[in-house]
Design brief:
By secondary structure, the chain is of the alpha+beta class. The chain is about 30% helix and about 20% strand. It contains 6 helices and 7 strands, in the order H-H-H-E-E-H-E-H-E-E-E-E-H. The chain has a 7-stranded antiparallel β-sheet. Strand 5 (about 185-190) and strand 6 form a beta hairpin.
């Protein structure tokens, strides 16, 4: 006959109760708490997470450094780019023409104001100004007229000089323009914008500087294209003197 074991213990003939056998092997009595097995530290997943975080920091940090270096050097020409002909500065926006210089091309009383102001970056500087008689031509009983000048100064990059960038820009702005002579300009292209001849546009380049002039004059008998090239020569002359 088997001896009774502790409550809840299952016994079979010829065997000690399971709990009694376990306590006996561990050297613990019935009144003692059985020792708990040691906890296993889950270091494996933690190491993997730390490794991933470290890799992300290294990759993002390294990419940020490279991006910073790339941006900081974006305005510098590489040794293979010849930027010796590039001008650092040139008149732009409303500084291109004085009021007295443009007034003869606008009938009646003239107003002038910047249109888009000026913008600059490592690659270029841009400005724009408009001279017109929009507010006065009806009162003055003259015809509407305006002159809009947009200026560009291109800087050398790792890929090309400012001169090369200016050449490409001129071709893009007036792809169908006819070559025209403008004193002082290295390139000049003119486009007629109206069939009646009262509006035209000319793009002129000197080294890395490009000026785009848009001229409208509805006064009968005014030769817009010839007067436009005449005004363009005044603008380019200021850059040539600085060069």
């Amino acid at each position: 006959m088997t001896q009774p074991g502790p409550p809840g213990a299952f016994t079979r003939p010829g065997h000690q109760p399971y709990l009694q056998q376990y306590f006996h092997q561990q050297g613990a009595g019935w009144g003692q708490q059985p020792p708990l097995p040691p906890r296993k530290r889950k270091t494996g997943p933690l190491i993997v997470v730390l490794a991933i975080v470290l890799m992300v920091v290294v990759v993002v940090g390294g990419g940020g450094v490279l991006l910073y270096l790339g941006l900081s050097d974006s305005g510098k020409a590489s040794p293979g780019v010849d930027a010796s002909q590039d001008l650092e500065k040139a008149p732009g926006g409303c500084a291109v023409l004085a009021e007295a210089e443009v007034a003869p091309y606008i009938p009646g009383r003239m107003n002038f104001k910047p249109l888009s102001g000026s913008t600059s970056s490592d690659r270029s500087e841009q400005g724009q100004c408009s001279w017109n008689n929009n507010d006065q031509y009806i009162k003055d009983r003259v015809n509407a007229a305006f002159v809009i000048v947009t200026s560009y100064v291109f800087h050398a990059t790792r890929e090309k000089s400012g001169v090369d960038a200016a050449k490409e820009h001129l071709k893009r702005r007036v792809p169908n323009g006819a070559e025209v002579g403008v004193q002082g300009a290295e390139d000049a292209r003119l486009v007629a914008l109206a069939k009646n001849g009262n509006q035209a546009k000319v793009a002129v380049r000197y080294r890395n500087v490009v000026y785009l002039l848009d001229y409208l004059n509805k006064t009968e008998g005014v030769q817009v294209q010839s007067r436009l090239t005449e005004l363009a020569a005044v603008v380019v002359g200021k850059v040539v003197l600085k060069g």
